[in-house]
Amino acid sequence: MSQLLWLAALLKSQYFSSVPVPNTSFEGQTTIVTGANTGLGFEAAKHFVKLNASRVIIACRNLEKGEAAKKAIEGEAKRTGVVEVWQLDLSSYNSVKAFAARASTLDRIDVLLENAGISTSKFSIMEDNESSITVNVVSTFLLALLMMPKLKEMSKKFNKQPHLVIVSSEVHGLTDLPERKDPSGDIFATLNDKSKAAMSARYPTSKLLEVLIVRAMVEQQMQPGYPVLINYVNPGFCRSELMREVGLLRQIVYLFLNARSTEKGSRTLVHASQAGPKSHGQYMSNCAVDVPSAWVRSEEGRKTGERVWKELSRKLEGIEPGILANL
Ligand SMILES: NC(=O)c1ccc[n+]([C@@H]2O[C@H](COP(=O)([O-])OP(=O)(O)OC[C@H]3O[C@@H](n4cnc5c(N)ncnc54)[C@H](OP(=O)(O)O)[C@@H]3O)[C@@H](O)[C@H]2O)c1
Ligand SMILES: *[C@@H]1O[C@H](CO)[C@@H](O)[C@H](O)[C@H]1NC(C)=O
Ligand SMILES: *[C@@H]1O[C@H](CO)[C@@H](O)[C@H](O)[C@H]1NC(C)=O
Ligand SMILES: *[C@@H]1O[C@H](CO)[C@@H](O)[C@H](O)[C@H]1NC(C)=O
């Protein structure tokens, strides 16, 4: 029943919502977009360039693809000397650390748009953990926390909150994290156990974890007035390379769900990157503040979020001792 309601809401959004073309100026701003060589990140970076950003850093795991993207963006936006390609591979914590160290030397950052992500039904290991969890969750928040001191510094320096945007998805509403009931009591360990892994639900699960984590962080450490504005955004269902593992079925799903172009989807990312203080800690969908799933908002969802955040904090401390003090 709840899945049918979810589908009805998705169809309504896909067929009847409008997402305006962004037109606010990013003049003078420096924006960072992860996973920007293709898909939504590429289109968002292009918007930033068209909207007069001074510096747009596209963080890519493959520099060759990054350079090709830079050329395409500069050609289409008819501006050069704005885009820079920086190496970032979220499957390696060392790469995340190196990227954060480099980004911390920038004289200005207005937007950190954490867009890179994967969807896979194959269980594989990256940094000792299941790949979707490593890339979409652990590395995403590792980067966020490593950048926090710099973002706070920017807030002081320019007297304006920088934006930290986490790209999530409406598919977070497809699961209520059954792993929370595992007798081990350890959600991440359960997710990393191949014998217990429900990989068909793994992508939605990773997107739900992002939602729970942002909400717990905001509730516990980043209350309104915090120097950095964080929000999480649903781009809607788009034709990108995300479903690269899926064959012919993909085209049918695109048609049935009236999939958006990545340009259209990227408008929501750009919107979240300049949304006002009312967007802090909020779920952004169709260029407006919305609410995440009913389960996320339930008491069980809140408690689960606390647990997930506690577990992730411990993990992040293991990767970078002292990192929690950055908040
Ligand atoms: N498309 C949708 O319908 C949809 C809906 C809701 C949410 N989203 C979210 O939107 C975001 C972007 O997805 P998309 O649809 O644009 O997918 P996409 O076309 O597959 O693009 C994903 C981007 O992330 C990069 N990436 C993947 N693994 C990485 C890693 N280990 N390190 C650094 N970068 C990595 C990819 O680089 P490579 O090209 O090198 O692989 C690519 O640039 C994701 O977070 C996704 O969950 C998408
Ligand atoms: C910018 O976009 C908004 C929303 O679509 C629209 O209402 C407004 O008229 C646009 N402004 C300009 C200058 O085009
Ligand atoms: C960007 O700069 C150009 C050239 O100065 C100007 O015509 C355009 O209106 C600016 N765009 C925005 C969104 O401010
Ligand atoms: C996952 O990564 C953490 C560090 O974040 C590590 O301690 C743990 O052993 C890894 N493997 C599993 C299966 O959790």
What does this molecule look like?
Keywords: Oxidoreductase, Signal. One of its GO terms (molecular function) is oxidoreductase activity. It holds the Pfam family adh_short. It is a single chain. 46% of the residues lie in helices and 13% in strands. The chain is α/β, with parallel strands linked by helices and 327 residues long. The chain has a single domain, classed as NAD(P)-binding Rossmann-like Domain (Rossmann fold, 3-Layer(aba) Sandwich). An 8-stranded mixed beta sheet has the order 3-2-1-4-7-8-9-10, with helices on both faces. The protein has a two-stranded antiparallel sheet with strand order 5-6. Helix 2 (39-50) links the parallel strand 1 (30-34) and strand 2. Helix 2 packs across helix 3 (63-77). One 2-acetamido-2-deoxy-beta-D-glucopyranose binds at residues 128-129, 189, 192, 315, 318-319. One 2-acetamido-2-deoxy-beta-D-glucopyranose (NAG) binds at residues 128-129, 189, 192, 315, 318-319.
Major beta-sheet overview = 8 strands, mixed
Q: Residue share in helices?
A: 40-55%
Known CATH architecture: 3-Layer(aba) Sandwich
The Rg value, from CA coordinates, equals 18 Å
Indicate the proportion of strand residues.
5-15%
- pLDDT < 50 runs, ≥5 residues: none
Count the domains: 1
Number of helices: 11
In CATH, the homologous superfamily goes by the name NAD(P)-binding Rossmann-like Domain
Largest sheet strand order: 3-2-1-4-7-8-9-10
Bound molecules: NADP nicotinamide-adenine-dinucleotide phosphate, 2-acetamido-2-deoxy-beta-D-glucopyranose
Quaternary state reads single chain
Question: How would you state the average pLDDT, rounded?
Answer: 97
Signal peptide: 1-18
Organism: Tothia fuscella
GO molecular function, one term: oxidoreductase activity
Protein name: Short-chain dehydrogenase/reductase-like protein
